Structures are given as C-alpha cells and as structure tokens.
Amino acid sequence: MVETPHYDILVIGGGINGAGIARDATGRGYSVCLAEAGDFGGGTSSASTKLIHGGLRYLEFYEFRLVREALMEREILWGMAPHIIRPLRFVLPYHSGLRPAWLLRIGLFLYDNLGGRKLLPGTKTLDLTKDTAGKPLKPGYRKGFEYSDCWVEDARLVVLNLRDAQAKGATVLARTTVTSARLVDSTWHVSLHDRDADATSEITASLVVNAAGPWVDNVLKSVFGQNDAQNVRLVRGSHIVIDRKFDHGRPYIFQNADGRILFAIPYETDYTLIGTTDAEQEALEERPAITPQETEYLCKMASEYFAEPVTTDDVVWTYSGVRPLYDDGASKAQEATRDYVIRPDKTLGNGRLVNIFGGKITTYRRLAESMLAEVEAVLGKRGPAWTKGATLPGGDFPTTGFDDLVRAIRTEYPLLDAALVRRLARLYGTDARTVVDGAKTSEDLGRDFGHGLTEAEVRYLMKTEWARAAEDILFRRTKLGIRMSEAQKQALADWMAESRGSA
Q1: Three-class SS state of 472
Q2: pLDDT tens per residue, range 212-251
Q3: Are 141 and 95 in contact (CB under 8 A)?
Q4: What is the DSSP string of 272-319?
Q5: Which of the 8 DSSP states describes residue 476?
Q6: What is the pTM of this model?
C-alpha cells in the first residue's frame, strides 16, 4: 500500500506570491507542495507592466506603508536577480494643466528618501528642449523630471523562485488542480488532478495557503465550500506593444487628465510597451483580452505626449491580466488599494487555511515573510528568515555586473552569436552556460526555430523550467513569440510534442 504523501504546507497557486511563499517556507525547513492549475506565472504574474517600483502615484492615495516597503525592496530584488532585474531612469514630463511642479517635486523627494536607496540614483530635473528625452515629445513639453525604478522579467521571476524552492526540497506541480480539501483532526486531506496525465492523487497537509490570485474566491467556493466568498475586486490591466517609438533607453511616465498615469517603456529591443488600463473585469476568464476601447484609450493617451501619434494600426501585440485587488470599497478601480491582505480563516481549522488577497510583484518577498509569520503561529518556527540577500538561480554575480557577465560568457564561447549570448545572459544569468551546454558554435545548439530560439534552449526550458507548451516558452520563459510567424510557432509546438512523446 502506497502511503499518502504528507506536507507541512500546501500552496495553491503558482504565481509570484505562491512561488515566493514556497521558496521561503522550504528554505526555513518546512515540507512544501505547490500546485498550479496551469503554467507557472500564467495569469496575473506574467501580465504586469514588468516594473519593480515603489508606485509613485500611490502616494496620492496615502499608501505610505506600501510605497516605503516597495521602495526598500527594489535594490534587494535587483541584488537577488540582476540578470532579470535592471535599473531604469524614468522621464516624467511636466504637464502644465495637471499636477503642479511643486507637488511633483515633493512626491519625488519622498520617493527618493522613503526607501533607503543606495545604488539607484536620485531624481534630477530635465530641460526637455535640450535633453534627448524631449525629442519624441510634442514641443510644448519643456520641463521634466528623471527618477529611478527597476524593470523585471515578471514570469521569469516566478519560475526562478520555484526552481529555488524545488532545489531546496519543495514538490512543485504544474497543471495540477486542487479539486477538494477536507479537514480531519487538524489535517487537510486534499485531492489533486494532473491535467496532462488526467490522473488523480491524494496528499495531506497541516496547513493550506490559498494564493490563487484572481481565482482566490473561486478556490474558496469550489475547494472549501465557501459559496459566498467575495473578497477581491477583479480589475483588468491591458497593454499594447508597438514598434520602437524612440531611440534612447529611458522609459516615460505620462500623466493623464483622468488622474491615471501611463508608461511607455523600451521593450524587447525593437518595441515600445504602453500601458496600463484599469477596467472592471465582470467575469473571470482564463485569458482576459484587451477591448477596442482600451486600445483606443492607450493610443489616445500616448498621443497626448508623443509628437508622432500612436494609432491602433501601430499595435503589433497586446496582453491583458486581471489584478485581484482586495475589495476595500473604493469607488474607482484606480483608487482600490494595491496593498496585500493576509487573512487566516478562523472557521476552518483555527488558522490552518490562510488566504492572500491582492499584492504586487515588487513586494512579493515581503508578503512571503508576512505569510511565514502566520505559518509559524500554527506550525511553530523551524528556521529564520533568509531570503533577503539570497540570490535566485542565475543571479550569483554582482548587482552591477551584468555587462561583465556577458563579456565573460563571450570569452568562453567566442564563436556564438553576440546578440544570442546577451539574450541568454539576460534571461538565465550564469545559467546561460548550462543552456549552451558546451556548444562551440551556434550550429551546435541545434535547430533554430526562429530569432535565435534553438533546440538547446528549448530542451533546457522543458527539463529545468516546466515548459510544456510552445506558449510557455514563446510568451513567458521568453518573449520571442512577438516576433515569430504562425508557421514558426507551429513548428516549435510540433517539435515539443514529438520530444515529449519520445521522452
């Protein structure tokens, strides 16, 4: 008779919050199983604006604790994963009809000084009539401000946390749905369904963490029988991608008359990312999609600033995600809190079910530490907090040493294409050496499916990063799908299916 596996903690949800909790808990000595119904980071965590930031506009809503915590996390996360996180200098053009310059200066002063900034440079004033950042803008924008935040490859941040959790002993299950859970004598008896194998299994756990993001209330209803669960407000954020709008490497943050802000960010070398919207999402769909109204809104808002208008014909790709904001009763989606709420369910096992509502990518590590305080209250303390300063896979090089890493790999592999080496270093850091696996030339990496995506890289992602479908690779592990033709995408899908079948 096969004994049912038991874990201290079952984490439901493989987005950034669930991944961060699994990593932190495993590193403290708890046994952890994480189950994700789809691909890791396949929901909200791969549909962000890709920023590690304090949230400058949140100061207007007096979210000082959230902003301070997020500002403090920027350099911590940058140091943990300097391959997928990098600093950016944001340009904020002064709009004479909106927030006054003195208010912007106060906000930026707080932004510079709330979070213990050490490596990121502070704010400075720009003369947009002379600075290159002014060239793409309408001539009426003469003054601007430049400040620091960071960029992140969001879906990769999820996967790297899970890789580290697995390396420390966690059981990490993709495409596995939790179908039921019942509490018997302080132990959860849980049924799982492996969607790929169409097989069911059972585990037990001492504590369950519901980190299902937008599906958190659905899990409470379908798994735990709480049919009246209504804790989160679903807000859709949509983005458009256009061909590169400007030549310099600094992103813009634009104010709008409706109180919202818009980012225009250099993206994947040849593109500009523009977003985001805040639209109520009435129904929870697996794949939210941008509406024509949102596309027109983003184009119109960007065109208020750029000398050359942005039109719907310029859009080459779009993506949308649903933010599960804690329902605090705010009248507008843009005013709803971005802070996270961790709430033990006192009616089920006296805190043996803990739910997470809301949260931001920037503060996922701190959220995990807060969650571990709840875990310790139920299961007892096993080990100290440890994630601050602990690098993620591939990030074991100096925070400001990315270019040195690229040079070192190019020296070791002089016959590999230089652009390929840089792309691999940006995605995999020091693990780029494992991806190329001793190849002397680019041809040694096997078939090129397009734009430098080779068999060697695909095999690595299937073996090491749970990639099962072409979409996992093209739009989450990498963003090469933006460039790929339909024929190239299909060729990759066929090759992956054949590889799985022969494995």
Answers
A1: helix
A2: 999 999 999 999 999 989 999 999 999 999 999 999 999 9
A3: yes
A4: EEEE---EE--S--SS----HHHHHHHHHHHHTTBSS---GGGEEEEE
A5: I
A6: 0.96
